[in-house]
Design a protein that fits this description.
Layout: H1 4-7, H2 10-13, H3 17-43, H4 61-74, H5 78-85, H6 89-104, E1 108-109, E2 117-118, H7 121-131, E3 135-143, E4 166-173, E5 179-182, E6 186-187, H8 192-198, H9 201-207, E7 213-214, H10 220-225, E8 230-231, H11 243-271, H12 286-301
Parallel strand pairs: 3-7, 7-8
Antiparallel strand pairs: 1-2, 3-4, 4-5, 4-6
Helix pairs in contact: 3-4, 4-6, 5-6, 6-12
GO molecular function: metal ion binding
Protein name: Transposase
Domain Transposase Helix-turn-helix: 61-107
Length: 304
């Protein structure tokens, strides 16, 4: 077994000691309630022993949280984590599954608003309209393993841009690159605009008319349907246009790109966690993993 204080170092977990302490205080009770609920469901009735009786956990909650953070940050195999914590591989697998779901359900931190978190796209639009925040939206793709031959929907994950099997995440950030929301991942073959519409962005534009979102050229369909709210780069002048007009177009396009680049920085922060560089596990676990990592990144950037 390795020294537990060493395993909790920021180089292993990817977060500061203060951040880890706040996570422990925030998630300890939900984890206990969730474990008790699973036990109640398994035995089919109320407990017959006093709370605290029975077998003890081989890994306390703090160790489970640290093991999950190490797994997310460095993608260490469960068997290796089992050796580090002195438990069986199956214990680590169960711990990572429980804590990862808790991290995914936390939502995203609101800048300068401790305790307030955004969990849905409607929350983000309501926050942006109330605070006058101009949003940035973009999509990113994570390479995944190719589905087995003969399975339905095998081609749905083949990205036309990456020429690989991927899953696509839609992310919203503010003007300083702070992550405010990440959608559940969708097959990589889906177009960026289709993914945004599937997340419910059309209804949000309709109900929050004062919100503006900066987008790239991949979202021209949204710009056409929601002028003044979905802002894409200016269209290139027709051939033969005056030189001054072309120069103005280049300046406007550069300014738009400079304003929108912050969401690219947010995506880069997510990809620093090794599990999002290339996903080698089951595809149905990637959405919770992405939301968990994006939520952790939002905690750090919300206080910057």
């Amino acid at each position: 077994m390795a020294d537990r204080s060493v395993l909790a170092h920021p180089l292993f977990t990817g977060i500061s000691t203060a951040h880890l302490s706040s996570l422990i205080a925030e998630l300890a009770r939900p984890w206990v309630v969730g474990v008790e609920g699973r036990r109640l469901q398994a035995r089919g009735g109320a407990r017959k022993r006093a709370p605290g009786a029975g077998a003890r956990h081989q890994m306390v909650f703090v160790d489970r949280l640290v093991a999950t953070l190490i797994h997310l940050r460095h993608d260490l195999p469960h068997a290796v984590l089992g050796v580090l914590f002195g438990v069986d591989r199956s214990t680590v697998t169960r711990a990572v599954g429980e804590v990862r779901q808790l991290l995914a359900e936390r939502g995203f931190a609101v800048p300068d608003r401790p305790g307030l978190r955004l969990r849905t796209l409607q929350d983000v639009f309501a926050y942006a309209q109330a605070e006058g925040v101009e949003l940035r939206l973009d999509a990113t793709e994570v390479q995944v393993r190719r589905p087995a031959a003969g399975r339905g929907g095998r081609r749905a994950f083949v990205s036309g841009k990456k020429k690989q099997n991927t899953m696509k995440a839609t992310v919203i950030a503010d003007h300083r690159g702070r992550t405010l929301w990440a959608d559940g991942l969708r097959p990589g073959r889906m177009h960026d605009v289709t993914a945004a519409r599937a997340a419910g962005i059309t209804s949000c534009f309709r109900h929050f008319e004062l919100v503006e979102i900066l987008l790239d050229d991949g979202y021209l369909g949204l710009s056409r349907d929601h002028p003044g709210q979905a802002v894409t780069p200016p269209r290139k002048p027709r051939p033969g246009a005056l030189a001054g007009r072309v120069e103005q177009w280049e300046r406007d396009r550069h300014e738009h790109s400079s304003d929108r680049i912050t969401v690219e920085h947010a995506l880069a922060d997510h990809k620093r966690w090794k599990q999002l560089m290339r996903w080698t596990h089951r595809r149905d676990r990637l959405p919770d993993t992405y939301r968990a990592i994006a939520g952790l990144v939002s905690d750090r950037t919300a206080t910057v």
